Amino acid sequence: MQSFLEETKTYQEVPFTWPKGYKADGVHVGLRKNPNKKDMGWLYSEVPAQAAGTYTTNQFQAAPTKLTKQTINQDHLLQGMVMNTAVANSVTGEQGMIDAKKMQKLAADKMGIDANLVGVASTGVIGENLPMDLIQKGVSQLELLDNDLVTEAILTTDTHPKTISTQIEIDGKTVTISGFCKGSGMIHPKMATMLGFVVTDAKIADGQLQPMLSQQVDKTFNQITVDGDTSTNDMVVTLANGMADNTSISIDDGDNFEKFTDAYNAVLTKLAQDIAEDGEGSTKLVEVNVENAATHADAQKVAKAIVGSNLVKAAIFGEDANWGRIIAAIGQTDAVVDIDHTSVWLNDLPLVDNSHSADFDETVMKEALTDKKITVLVDLNSGTATGQAWGCDLTYNYVRINATYRS
């Protein structure tokens, strides 16, 4: 099975750009110790936009995450998002919600819009209250600009911003879809310590944005893992402000709907891969493709079990073709598996043939494992369904980063 990067594209990937009608900015206000790192940002649409979101399933859901979910669920509209890094405002009791609402109101007043049109996102250390003097200072410094500094303002242990833009033509109108996200550690969505934002100027039919987002998140962000930990602040929010003035996109309009969802999926897939590749301390992106599964759910389950196995991740870091770890990860799931006829390939080289070791050259396989991207293909021989997941290797540096996270 091919990754989307190898498939025929119905969209064009372009340098990162904001779709029509969006403004953004990012500043440093002192939440992070390094003065060269942005730590607050926002995103604004000139008109209220249709909004949809997906959120962490962690029981200790952070105040800003709860507030954004409540805000979107009121009318499924947003016109702005305000964000900060370094302090998660999570497990902070009643004061946490008070601070999140104040942050929302400060941003709304500066934008000149109703507070019920502003979402809030925070990430960083759990259990610390927001320093509201710095939050107020940050909002006062933010402007409605065309820069992309907000993509830096949400980073924690990430090594770089993660962004993508695509464009398609809908009835002669250019539609742009742009996304950015953060995430490096505590990544095991449904959801994880990640924030994702996807904005478009497309006009989408009423009631169709939320199911579209939920379906695509299940196939992308929910299929990545770095370390198996799910955090308290995760969310993916998408806005569609309709300013491209295209014919409204609906599931009943097969061609345009398919064209849009292909480009939308490409944005979310690329962002998910970027998070996996930038996993804390990682040196390799790991992609697992599963084919001939009994169901799509089985294929997804097996793919994520493999990328999530610490033993598999360690073996890939050590460039050791220890295929027993892959087989063991498959067997730990409740997926339907033909245990006598399961096959595995690594970077197109046969590793396991019908549940027996393939006749492979250890030297050649070890060389293949030096690649920066490792692709594992699994044939379960149990049906026709496929699935895909992404992760990274497990390195000594991961332990160092997380042993000193607060210092």
TrEMBL record:
Any GO MF annotation of the entry: L-glutamate N-acetyltransferase activity, acting on acetyl-L-ornithine as donor
Gene3D superfamilies: ArgJ beta chain, C-terminal domain, L-amino peptidase D-ALA esterase/amidase
Residues holding substrate: T156, K182, T193, E280, N402, S407
InterPro entries named among the record's database cross-references: Arg_biosynth_ArgJ, ArgJ-like_dom_sf, ArgJ_beta_C
Transmembrane segments: none
Catalytic residues identified in the record: T193
GO cellular component: cytoplasm
Domain of life per record: Bacteria
Annotated site residue numbers, Involved in the stabilization of negative charge on the oxyanion by the formation of the oxyanion hole: T123, G124
One GO biological process term: L-arginine biosynthetic process
Alphabetical UniProt keywords: Acyltransferase, Amino-acid biosynthesis, Arginine biosynthesis, Autocatalytic cleavage, Cytoplasm, Multifunctional enzyme, Transferase
Subcellular localization, as worded in the UniProt entry: Cytoplasm
EC numbers for this chain: 2.3.1.35, 2.3.1.1
Protein's pathway: Amino-acid biosynthesis; L-arginine biosynthesis; N(2)-acetyl-L-ornithine from L-glutamate: step 1/4; Amino-acid biosynthesis; L-arginine biosynthesis; L-ornithine and N-acetyl-L-glutamate from L-glutamate and N(2)-acetyl-L-ornithine (cyclic): step 1/1
Catalytic reaction(s) noted: L-glutamate + acetyl-CoA = N-acetyl-L-glutamate + CoA + H(+); N(2)-acetyl-L-ornithine + L-glutamate = N-acetyl-L-glutamate + L-ornithine
Pfam family, one: ArgJ
Site (Cleavage): A192, T193
Subunit details: Heterotetramer of two alpha and two beta chains.
Family affiliation: Belongs to the ArgJ family.
Described function: Catalyzes two activities which are involved in the cyclic version of arginine biosynthesis: the synthesis of N-acetylglutamate from glutamate and acetyl-CoA as the acetyl donor, and of ornithine by transacetylation between N(2)-acetylornithine and glutamate.
The protein's name in its UniProt record: Arginine biosynthesis bifunctional protein ArgJ
Organism per entry: Companilactobacillus farciminis
Gene that this polypeptide is encoded by: argJ
